[in-house]
Every structure is written in C-alpha cells, then in structure tokens.
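User: I'm putting together a teaching handout on how multi-component assemblies are represented. Below are the sequence lines for each component of a complex, exactly as they appear in our records. Could you produce the 3D structure of the whole assembly as structure tokens, so the students can see both representations side by side? Please keep the chain order the same as the input.
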Amino acid sequence: MSNAAPTPPAGPSSSSARSSAPASTADAVELLGLVAQLEHTAFVRLAGDCALAPDVEQRLALSRFAAAAVERRDRVLARVAELGADPAASMRQFDDVLTEFDERTQPSSWWERLLKAYVGYGVADDFCRIAAQGLDERSRAVVLEVLDDASHAELAVAELDAAGSGDGVLSSRLALWGRRLVGEALGTVQRLITQRPALERLVAAAAAEPDGAPSDGGNASAAGTTTPNAPAKVFGELTAQHTRRMSRLGLTA
Amino acid sequence: MSNAAPTPPAGPSSSSARSSAPASTADAVELLGLVAQLEHTAFVRLAGDCALAPDVEQRLALSRFAAAAVERRDRVLARVAELGADPAASMRQFDDVLTEFDERTQPSSWWERLLKAYVGYGVADDFCRIAAQGLDERSRAVVLEVLDDASHAELAVAELDAAGSGDGVLSSRLALWGRRLVGEALGTVQRLITQRPALERLVAAAAAEPDGAPSDGGNASAAGTTTPNAPAKVFGELTAQHTRRMSRLGLTA
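Assistant: Of course. Below is the structure of the complete assembly, with chains in the same order as your input.
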C-alpha cells in the first residue's frame, strides 16, 4: 500500500538530486516508516529498562521517556496517514530492522546497555536526519522535530559520564564496546541503503546538498568503496557524529 | 514524608465517618499512591504485552494504552504533589502491592493473561473507586476520572468474548481461572485493608455512605467475619462488580 505512489522522474541514483526536488510520496513514506519503527523500538526498550530499574525515580523517568517515544512515533504515523498511506504497513516493512544489530550486540552490563542505546540510536537518528533532507518540507519538519527530542540521550550521557569518569577500566571497556557498536550500526545502515532503493535515493539527494557534511564535490556516489552506490559522504558524517558523541562521554571513538 | 499530615479528629474505625468529612491529607496521599502504583503496574504490563504482540496493529494499540497509563499515573502524582507530599514516596510504599498476587496467579496462556488483567485490575480499580468516596472532593475527582478511562478493558472484553463464545472448553477453563483470580484479588484487598489503617479508614467512610452498595444499615464494621474490622459491605460490592464483569464475557463468576 505504501508503494502505490509513482517513483520520481529523476533516476534513483541521480547525483544531481537536490532537496529542492522532494522525494516521491512512496519514498517519504518509507523513511517515515523507518523513523516510526525506531521510535517504537525505543518505546519497547525504555519500557523494558523501566521494569528493570531498581528505583522509583528512575522508573518514573524511564516510563515518561517511553510514553514520549509513543507520542513521537504517532506524530510520524500521522504524517504517513496525511500522505495517504497505511501507517501500520509503513512500520511493518521495518519490523526486523534492528534484529541482526541486536543479535550481534548483546550488552553484558547496565552500562553496555546504556551505551548501546546512546550509540545505536544515535547512529540511526543521524542517518534518518540526513536522509530527511531529501523529503518534502512538511515530512522533513516532522522527522527533524521528532529526532530533536533527545531528552533520553541526556540521561544516558549523565549516567555514563558519572560512571566512567572515576573508573579507567570501565572507560576503556566502554570505548571498545562503542567501537564495536558503531561498526555494527554502520553495517546496518549500509544494508538498509543497499536493500532499500527509496532510502538510497534520499541519501543520494542528501549527499548532494551543499550545506551537509564536508563535501567531496557534491557527487554522492563517487567515493563509495565497499558498495559502489553508498554515499561515502554520509558514512563520513555518521562517523564524525559518533566521534563527537563518544567524546562527550570522555571516551575514545 | 507522606505521613507528615495529622490524623483525622474522628477515630480511625469510626462507623459514623461520612464522605462529607474528608480524609486527612496523609490518608488521601496513601490512596493516591496506591492508585499511582496500580497505573504504573498497568503501564509495565501493557508494555510487556506490546513487546509480545505478534501484529503491528496490536502493538500500536497496546503501546498507546501503556502511554495512557503513564499519563493517568502522572495525573494522580500531580495531585500528591499538590497536597504537599512526595510523589515518588507515595508510590514506593506500594512497590510490592501485587507481588504476592502475581506469584499466585501466573497465567499459562494469552487468554489467562488477558482475563487476569481484566479481573485483577477490575477488582483493584473497584476497591480504589470505593475508597475514594472518603477523599476530599478534588482528590476523589482525580481518582474517579483516572479509573473511568477503561479503554483497555474494552479491548480485553472484545478479545475474550470473541475467543470464548465459540469454545466451550476455553470458556469453562476461563470461568475457573476467573474464580481463582477474584479469590486472590479479594485476599489482596483484605491484606491491604488490614495492613494500612489509612485505607481502612477510607473504606469505613465509604461503607457508611448511603448511596453505595446495598447497605447493611450504615455500620461499616458490623458484618466482617474473617477480619472483624473489614467492612463486609465493600467485599459484597467488589464481588457484585466481579460477577457483572464476568457475565459481560459470558462467563460464570
């Protein structure tokens, strides 16, 4: 149902695609479905954290973050409905988007779990933020607004920072864990782009944007090495954001 | 902190207590804390159901019910704060309120789980609704408003009704399960009243109400048999509501 809209007139990998030529409705619905699924997954994880949290104050905070993720997901799904597509179907196609990532990155402690949420969702959110540059104005606004609400990340930063600052062993373990996480997260993004032409088109459009990350000349498909069409510029941007994120925790990326 | 307010001038088991003489702030905070804890428990359970649900539509519905439970809990906690007490502390004292009930009533199927939620929360909600009659007007309004939002119960009723109507074996199993559940739920209520003088006072005040369940003459403590002070009238009302609830499902109470 979400694939009913026509594909855009420009070729799918056109390196001259600009955000001023917004994505087709079908492409927009696909990215919106991904964002909705990620917010839903955040809800499930936060609710699970809440059930495990030993203290009432943490439980209150985590349950509110979980409820906020539901609200954000539903804002994205409302946009899907506005575009005439089926909200549930838009999410369903990304049911397993994090299954492999989760299998490969089982945290072995509360700190690893916290860093996984911060790094894993950080990369996913950054990817969606970049791809959103290729969307129509209203869809882009919804995605950026939803992803900007990073209150839960602040909690993770505060807790991880406090725990790591006095503990060199924990810090170096977490730094190692962070490198593992970002590797798996970038692999997940790469698979997504390869398997989903709509996301590839949006990312190509974003990479052609002049105001994105340090540009390699505007040619989105020129620098990919492992997969020829994947815009290396986007991976450069994701890696740079990850480094910033880790350094906020005093951890080596 | 929640026990800082003075006890009411009337004796704790006074059978002449009326809702026109509202409970002390400490007693109100205690009932509000119980309601908040029950809503929080509902959130955790609904989020767990959501993580297990096989279908996107069910997941969407359950996550919204879970988020609504957080919102209801927070409305109750806001009233606790208005009364000058500590919201987290008011909940903390009821941390284990359902632990024993849960241990004794482990559902062995999705249907048993659904009926447990409907019956277990039904009894708990009815108890809080009755005890709320003894509260000050504003606290009572908050509790009744929060407990009136029974959208999740409607879902349970629809699913259980559809499943049981064509299946006599399932129906009679669920009828048996319902009797077990209500027995344990009433036992939990009885322990709560015995262990919590504030709740006993509120229930005594409610039992003295002329517009409650069929009255035994307004003497709240006259008819208790297993525990002398427990108002049998309240248990009669809880049992009657349970019977109504089961018959909505076509099940024998």
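A couple of points students might notice: The mean pLDDT of chain B is 82. Chain B touches chain A through 26 residues (CB under 8 Å).
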